[in-house]
Specification:
279 residues, alpha/beta, six-stranded parallel beta sheet, binds zinc ion
Length: 279
């Protein structure tokens, strides 16, 4: 949890973002959440009535601040996606809670911010087609399930083959990486598939989940990417989107290195790469 404040403060201190350019989202509206999540699940999160099994699955204990935090995270992604549609790029300095399913949360993910944002923009008539490029080291299983039968939203997930979640869903494209995969192999695979993904998806919006957990020192990652390799990953994604003049919204995803400074650096590099390409 500590990384969020550090990323924000670090980006402002480094002059990458102006403090007054950062907005604090309010809670997302209930009717937007209900475009993805079952009302009884939403209610249980907000009222604090999730059962023990549901809490275990979520991975952290319920806390009085959990509902507000979760609701604001989703709204942040929604507003950043609106920014992307109007200005070309948008950033949520949180989000990427891709393990959340319609009726339950898991893997530290309460609500699926990306799915709610996409569905809300579709409902509002400002978006038809989207692609989710999920480069967090874990499969975006919740997102894959939510959009499984939706031809308008293409889901692409590149993740560790031996990592959580152990029961996979089917994305439109899943690329599984062996333990210890390093920069060169990772980037070659990404480059080989990125254009195909954008071609097949024909998106009006790219949602990029820029997980910091493919990093070699990540405690949950199992891959072997360097900080520089992750920055090249980001630049590869943004350059491919820019070539097609596609609006991009980025969200953070996971990052669990013991050295929080590394996690902050990796996420801050993603923001810098987006601004360099689109700013
Ligand atoms: Zn992850």
């Amino acid at each position: 949890m500590g990384k969020y404040r550090l990323i924000r403060d670090g980006l402002v201190a480094a002059g990458v973002l102006r403090a007054d350019a950062i907005e604090e989202p309010g809670p997302v509206a209930r009717d937007a959440l209900h475009l993805v999540h079952h009302p009884d699940y939403v209610e249980a999160v907000i009222e604090g009535t999730l059962g023990d099994a549901a809490i275990r699955r979520l991975g952290f204990p319920w806390h009085p601040l959990l509902p507000e935090r979760s609701l604001r995270t989703v709204q942040g992604t929604l507003e950043a996606a609106r920014d992307a549609l109007s200005n070309g790029a948008g950033i949520n300095l949180a989000g990427g809670t891709h393990h959340a399913f319609p009726g339950h949360g898991e893997g530290y993910c309460v609500f699926n911010d990306v799915a709610v944002a996409v569905r809300t923009l579709q409902r509002d008539g400002v978006l038809a087609r989207a692609v989710v490029i999920d480069l967090d080291v874990h499969q975006g299983n919740g997102t894959a399930r939510i959009f499984e039968n939706d031809e308008a939203v293409f889901t692409f997930s590149m993740h560790g083959a031996k990592n959580y979640p152990f029961r996979r869903e089917r994305s439109d494209l899943d690329l599984e990486l062996p333990d210890g995969t390093e920069d060169q192999a990772y980037l070659a695979l990404l480059e080989r598939h990125l254009d195909e993904v954008l071609e097949r998806a024909r998106p009006e919006l790219v949602v990029y989940i820029a997980g910091a957990d493919p990093y070699r020192a990540d405690r949950l990652g199992r891959l072997g990417l360097s900080i520089d390799g992750l920055a090249r990953r980001d630049r590869t994604v943004f350059a491919a989107c820019w070539r097609r003049r596609l609006p991009v919204v980025m969200v953070l995803g996971g990052g669990y290195a013991a050295d929080l400074g590394d996690v902050v650096t990796i996420h801050a590099n993603t923001v810098t790469a987006l601004l360099d390409q689109y700013g």
